[in-house]
Design goal:
Largest sheet: 8 strands, parallel, barrel
Radius of gyration: 24 Å
Number of strands: 24
Number of helices: 12
Oligomer: single chain
Distance between the termini: 47 Å
CATH topology of the domain at 8-130: Immunoglobulin-like
Helix content: 10-25%
Shape: globular
Strand content: 15-25%
């Protein structure tokens, strides 16, 4: 079942010479049934002033294929007088906006964000920049080529913990290149509703969360990474959303018995705090396919790490995950055939598949997802589990650890339609989901109150990391380092609970210089 790209030139907030056009599909929300939709807009500098209300503009309703009810309006910002004299309305800069729906049965629904927004404000607000200047890519970008799968050395980062924002992360890209890293995997950049968050409950998909910076900041970071020989892989969450995602939020408050986007599909791991997306719905499938295209085309990323694949796994011939990665692979092939310069980075050579990285987090069956889909890499916890058991004293797992380090049972390539696609798995002993490996050798608690969240691994035992890191870096597959692993970062992380994600754990860069960190840095280099 072929997927379709949504017409992004007509969706979200689109500026042309000071005039904004807003458009969105709201299937089953029809003017004929008495519904009205409006957009509320205010300049960002005015949003907290009690005497400056937002300007409100009604949207017009049409029926458009293939999803039905479509709402849109054109707003000449510069030609529309401000609601209050002296406000920033009409001036260049960031504006925040939201939609409202007036429904004859439930009344007025306010604070509905835009599912197609490219920028975001604080909390539940979409945004746009009046006078936005597109980023100009460096001259070197056209020559960038995504590394082959077999050459990748991966480094996972959380923007908020690694540097705080995109600009500060850019300051240490040269350090990562010097460390020997040639790919970064960035935890979700999508918009979320809270200020301290890992990013796995997204409510906006087409831009960078305002916590980290602006869309031009991320383009600049990708450009800089490429100049230093580092590919950029983004972590994406398609099987579930946060509760404020508009296609869940609006239809729930409308009290509709059905939903054109959300609903049960495969395995629902997150029903206690997130909501499942329904890939049986055409809008859902096309939406996430368009999200992939957007990040590849607009931001020049080199691939994706697909979070929690079981959320939308309905088999190798299904309409969920397998279809999405196949269509994304075909998209890259098509762009290469068209000689699109923005996609030249994926050129693997004559008769070779694109070097696009499509990495599954399919921990239930990592070997199977490589054999039966167009994923070319996968996370797997078997090496991690065996290494942790050995570190905790179970010497009976040594043989198992050896097998996992050699990726026993994993395919190295699969031939489909006469094209051989390289396949491999990641190897790691640390990642964002687990406590630091040092914690296996002993912990202490610097907190006087004894709060277990503040436990730390004993860095005096740094030397016990060495054999595991040597095995990791010499193993078969793609080695993955989790930020700070190279200088013996030692945070504890609980296996469950809100304390996993609601506590910021910034890197302690001073560890780089001390007697525990320096030997590990030297080893990895």
């Amino acid at each position: 079942m072929a997927l379709n790209l949504l017409p992004m030139g007509e969706l979200g907030a689109i500026e042309t010479n000071g005039t904004l056009t807003f458009g969105l599909w709201l299937p089953w929300v029809s003017a004929a049934d008495g519904n009205r939709v409006a957009v509320k807009i205010i300049h960002e500098t005015d949003q907290f002033l009690q005497n400056v209300p937002p300007r409100e503009f009604p949207l017009s309703h049409t029926v458009r294929d293939p999803y039905g009810d479509f709402w849109s309006v054109t707003v000449p910002i510069a030609g529309t007088p401000p609601a209050v004299a002296g406000s920033a309305w009409g001036m260049p800069g960031r504006y925040v906006y939201r939609y409202t729906i007036v429904n004859p049965n439930v009344g007025t629904l306010d604070w509905i964000i835009d599912p197609f927004a490219r920028e975001f404000g604080v909390g539940k607000l979409s945004a746009f920049t009046l006078g936005y200047q597109p980023y100009t890519w460096s001259a070197e970008e056209v020559d960038w080529r995504t590394p082959r799968l077999s050459d990748l050395v991966l480094y996972e980062i959380n923007i908020g913990e690694f540097g705080g924002d995109l600009n500060r992360v850019g300051n240490v890209i040269a350090y990562l290149a010097d460390l020997g890293v040639n790919a970064v995997e960035i935890m979700p950049l999508s918009n979320v509703g809270t200020s301290v968050d890992w990013g796995y409950l997204p409510i906006g998909y087409f831009g960078v969360d305002e916590r980290f910076g602006k869309r031009s900041d991320f383009r600049a970071l990708v450009d800089l990474c490429h100049q230093h020989g580092i590919a950029v892989i983004v972590d994406v969450v398609y099987g579930h959303t946060g509760v404020d995602f508009p296609y869940y939020d609006a239809y729930t408050r409308l009290r509709y018995r059905d939903n054109p986007f959300m609903g049960p599909f495969a395995k629902d791991y997150f029903s206690n705090f997130g909501k499942s997306t329904d890939f049986n719905r055409p809008l859902t499938r096309d939406y996430f396919y368009t999200v992939n295209h957007h990040w590849l085309d607009v931001y020049h990323v080199d691939g994706f790490r697909y979070d929690c694949v079981p959320n939308y796994w309905d088999g190798p011939l299904g309409v969920g995950y397998a279809s999405l990665v196949f269509e994304t692979y075909q998209l890259a092939k098509s762009k290469l055939a068209q000689a699109d310069p923005a996609w030249r980075r994926f050129d693997g050579g004559p008769g070779k598949p694109p070097n696009l990285v499509q990495m599954a987090e399919q921990l239930e069956d990592p070997q199977g997802v490589l054999r039966t889909t167009y994923s070319n890499s996968t996370w797997q916890n078997s090496t991690f589990d065996a290494a942790r058991s050995v570190a905790r004293g179970d010497r009976g797992r040594l043989f198992d650890l050896g097998l996992q380090l050699g990726l026993f049972g994993y395919p190295e390539q699969e031939t489909t339609n006469d094209v051989s696609i390289p396949k491999t798995a990641l190897q790691y002993i640390e990642n964002h989901d687990h406590e630091r490996f040092l914690c296996n050798f002993g912990t202490y608690n610097p907190d006087e109150a004894g709060n277990p969240l503040f436990q730390e691994g004993d860095r005096s035992r740094w030397f016990m990391l060495q054999p595991y890191l040597i095995a990791l870096l010499m193993s078969k597959g793609i080695p993955l380092l989790w930020q700070g692993e190279e200088f013996a970062e030692n945070y504890f992380l609980p296996d469950v609970g809100e304390g996993r994600v609601a506590l910021l754990r910034p890197l302690r860069w001073d560890y780089f210089y001390d007697g525990s960190g320096q030997p590990i840095v030297t080893l990895i280099r």
